[in-house]
Amino acid sequence: MSTIVAFSVSPLGTGDSVAPAVARAVKVVRESGLPNETSAMFTTVEGEWDEVMEVVRRAVEAAGEGADRVSMTLKADVRKGVTDGLHSKVEAVERELDGLR
């Protein structure tokens, strides 16, 4: 099953800035080799269910280094027969926007 997951992860009780923890999580995602993008609020990763969820698990562990608690928000799109949904979904919206101009 093709899966796109958008998630954010943040350790709790480690100070004002979570940038070091988020960087550790993003590093795990990028090193996975799966298609991914990072924005100001979420990291999105695409692949088969098991491989995506394993990357998310490892990213949460990396972000939680030195923390007793981690908060995570996750949204998933699980769909049969889709490849490169990370880009094709955005392209579909862009085509619709072109029609509205």
Automatic annotation (TrEMBL):
<comment type="similarity">
    <text>Belongs to the UPF0045 family.</text>
</comment>
<dbReference type="InterPro" id="IPR029756">
    <property type="entry name" value="MTH1187/YkoF-like"/>
</dbReference>
<dbReference type="Pfam" id="PF01910">
    <property type="entry name" value="Thiamine_BP"/>
</dbReference>
<protein>
    <submittedName>
        <fullName>Uncharacterized protein (TIGR00106 family)</fullName>
    </submittedName>
</protein>
<dbReference type="InterPro" id="IPR051614">
    <property type="entry name" value="UPF0045_domain"/>
</dbReference>
<feature type="domain" description="Thiamine-binding protein">
    <location>
        <begin position="5"/>
        <end position="94"/>
    </location>
</feature>
<dbReference type="InterPro" id="IPR002767">
    <property type="entry name" value="Thiamine_BP"/>
</dbReference>
